[in-house]
Amino acid sequence: MTRTSFDMDPFVVAALGRKVLRTRVVRHNLNPVYNEKMVFQSLRHETGYSLTFTVIDRDNLSGNDFVASTSFPIQKMIQSGPEEDPETGLYDLPDPPELFPSNGAERGGKSRFPPSSLSHVLG
Prior knowledge:
4-stranded antiparallel β-sheet, alpha+beta
């Protein structure tokens, strides 16, 4: 089969030292959105490492193709992160935005869900 347009099947490989994770392949897409979470636990001796992201185009016929790569120093993330409370060990983070407005007035109309129907969901 011959293709007449540019096409990619990209995926991303994330690495921190020897720890390597990868996303799923998004087929036939030049602007993929992954919406995936990756969790890396870093030890104290790894704070000098960099988190590396590499975009690769999957190609079963001739082998995968390198697209792009970037890295981000872990130390930069540590410095910009919130400070831990020494007594509780917890972080003072801002409250997240309210997902379900109480009466729908914030959206300029009626709520799709009456307050009584959300009480069992929200606890």
